[in-house]
Amino acid sequence: MFRYHGLLLVALLLLFTLSCRAQEEPPASFSISGECLSALKPLAAWMGATVTWAAKKTSVKVALGTRALTLEPYSVVAKNAQSRPCLLPVSPVWRDGQLFVPVHAVADALGVTCTPLEEGRGDLRLMLRDRNLTLPIPPVAELPLDPAIRLPLLIADLRLPVDRLATSKGISSQIRPYLEGFVRVAKPVQPALTGIANSKALRLLSHVPVVGGLVSVCQDAIGTIAGTIGVARRLVEMDAEYLAPIRDGFAAARDVATTPDAAMVAAARPKWTAALAAAEKQRALNETAGAHVHGLLSTLNIIEAKMAEFRKAYPQSEHVLSLGPLLRATQDLQVTVGAHHWQMTTMQGYFLALLDATAPVEGPEALTENVVK
């Protein structure tokens, strides 16, 4: 008799536990740049993932089984379990003392299914084995029209830590290590590609499709590699050249947030204009760099396919080579160039919004009509 009572008690406790789990509160979430972000700590707890912070919380590693993702606040570059960089759709941000992370990216990296709950709605559903969680995403609120309220909200953009960017040393430090790694791997490959393109023996066999196709694409790759190195280096140089106006623009935003009066706004506007121009120029060059890297990746993939055919037909040839390391280095460079593009685009929108919000109504004398009094 007591055994049955014990079993009944266990069953009731299990039912209560499952009921509590079904009713558990979803982590706080919101939408920014069209992406859903959720508080990392409760999100990871629901997934059963471990969260390990680096010193001073400069980065955080989220792991579930053999899968992992390392994120940095305010950076769209993350690292997977193999320490390879990957590009996030939006950066993790601090809000109310919690780190909010892009849900889709974290879920995908950890093997958790993430899908929209309904067509046309922002709510998401997470599924992990036999469990699921609904994340209600509040709609994005329209910014108020009152300049006294609107301007401080624009300055406090969650994606851009104004205090840090006002004293930043630039973001070229993020690109430089991957550029150097790319150059280090590409240098020994360039003479090998030149050897294939200029080989008299291979030219005599150029009528053979497997040989002719390889020679042709190797000729293209030589110039593409050199062009990619050149434009990526220019991107790093330009970041240093235009660091001062961008840094001054954020410093001016910080000053306006501290002292929101018409005189401070009037002094800030020329700095925001210069910062906007600097961001636009870097973004334009970045798009050129991105096109070079994308073109190089396409070319390298074609060479890999042609080389596989060539290796099969001529296994003893001195011109057989593997492009695996160069492909990986190019992919890594593409991620960091993409991160630079995201940051320049975000900064461009930021300074443009500040200028629009503080634009004089009729002229300089009307500035006080639409700035914070």
Task: Please provide a written account of the structure.
The chain has helices at 2-22, 40-47, 103-110, 147-155, 162-165, 172-198, 200-204, 209-241, 243-258, 262-313, 324-357; strands at 29-32, 35-39, 50-53, 60-64, 67-71, 77-80, 85-87, 93-95, 98-102, 113-116, 124-128, 131-135. By secondary structure, it is α+β, with helices and mostly antiparallel strands. It folds into two domains: 26-135, Copper Amine Oxidase, Chain A, domain 1 (2-Layer Sandwich), CATH 3.30.457.10; 147-369, no CATH class. The strands form three sheets. A five-stranded antiparallel beta sheet has the order 3-4-5-6-7. It has a four-stranded antiparallel beta sheet with strand order 1-2-9-8. Strands 10-11-12 form a three-stranded antiparallel beta sheet, with helices on one face. Helix 4 runs antiparallel to helix 11 and helix 6 runs antiparallel to helix 8. The longest helix is centred in the C-terminal third of the chain and has 52 residues, at 262-313. The radius of gyration is 27 Å and the shape is globular. The protein starts with a helix and ends in a 16-residue tail after the last helix. The model is unreliable at 7-23 and 364-373 (pLDDT under 50).
Ordered list of secondary-structure elements with their pairings:
Elements: H1 2-22, E1 29-32, E2 35-39, H2 40-47, E3 50-53, E4 60-64, E5 67-71, E6 77-80, E7 85-87, E8 93-95, E9 98-102, H3 103-110, E10 113-116, E11 124-128, E12 131-135, H4 147-155, H5 162-165, H6 172-198, H7 200-204, H8 209-241, H9 243-258, H10 262-313, H11 324-357
Antiparallel strand pairs: 1-2, 2-9, 3-4, 4-5, 5-6, 6-7, 8-9, 10-11, 11-12
